[in-house]
Amino acid sequence: MNTKVLYTGKTHTTGGREGASQSSDEQLNIKLSAPGSSRPGTNPEQLFAAGWSACFIGALGIAASKLGVRLPAETAVDAEVDLCVTEGEYSLQARLNISLPGIDREKAEALAAQAHQTCPYSKATRGNINVELNIL
């Protein structure tokens, strides 16, 4: 099986959670700060949530086209990514809160389940972290 790379995101990060990150194309240039810090900047959990929610909406679009459903323009995913610690070990868990206005609950659940099977972020986390899908 041949894998075709469609895109490679490249960043250069210094200073860890209290540093900075810049993409190779300079479209992303951000300060980083630890969760709960009063310092300016975002944190890796917020960045992961933003990437996952954007990707998941794309996967919802693919699922909708397969199921013959038109996604509403107001489709939204509010991702919540928790940084957790248990007995000194760090982990993540997440909730994807999916809003599909005008689509009945059964169809929305089918779309979310299909999207969760195809979204690359969902695939990467499957079996590794606890993930909840919530239809709003």
From TrEMBL:
Domain of life: Bacteria
Coiled-coil ranges per UniProt: none
Biased composition (Polar residues): 1-27
Listed Pfam families: OsmC
InterPro entries in the cross-refs: KH_dom-like_a/b, OHR, OsmC/Ohr_fam, OsmC/Ohrsf
Region annotation (Disordered) ranges: 1-43
Signal sequence interval, chain numbering: none
Family to which this protein belongs: Belongs to the OsmC/Ohr family.
NCBIfam families with a match to the protein in the record: organ_hyd_perox
Protein name listed in UniProt: Organic hydroperoxide resistance protein
Organism: Flavobacterium ginsengiterrae
